[in-house]
Amino acid sequence: MGDALGTLESIYFSFQANLEDMLAACKTQADRDAIMSQYVAARQNYWQCIDRTFHNDDPVVQSLVAEAKADIAQLNTIDNSLGDIAKVINIATEVVTVGSKIAAKVITL
């Protein structure tokens, strides 16, 4: 598995591992919907790129992967931010946005 797909997998699996805690921290249905929509987007990014090819040597892909890895680290320590659901939603949105940019770099044949 290449770096780009591995990063999309890490985003999805990190989301999956932290989803229950993030949802439990939500105070409103709108917050839960925001978290779930980002989770679904992370899952979709990963699944649409399985068995696809990336130019892992492309500087843009490398930059996005580096950015995503930093975002994944924030997602994996999300317990530190659960008291501020707006911050959690922002982290989730950022990681999925970068993941979507990586997914958009898949090579179409």
Describe the 3D structure.
By secondary structure, the chain is mainly α. The protein contains four helices and no strands. It has helices at residues 3-25, 29-49, 59-76, 85-103. Helix 2 (29-49) runs parallel beside helix 4 and helix 3 (59-76) runs antiparallel to helix 4 (85-103). The chain starts with a helix and ends in a 6-residue tail after the last helix. The model has no long low-confidence stretch (mean pLDDT 90).
Return the string of H and E elements: HHHH
Query: Cα distance, first to last residue?
Result: 18 Å
Name the shape in a single word.
elongated
Radius of gyration: 14 Å
Largest beta-sheet characterization: none
Mean pLDDT: 90
Give the DSSP E fraction (strand runs of 2 or more residues): under 5%
Number of helices: 4
Helix content: over 70%
Structural class: mainly alpha
Number of strands: 0
> Spans with pLDDT under 50 lasting ≥5 residues?
none
Keywords:
mainly alpha
Which helices and strands, and how do they pair?
Blueprint: H1 3-25, H2 29-49, H3 59-76, H4 85-103
Care to give the gist of this entry?
The longest helix is centred in the first third of the chain and has 23 residues, at 3-25.
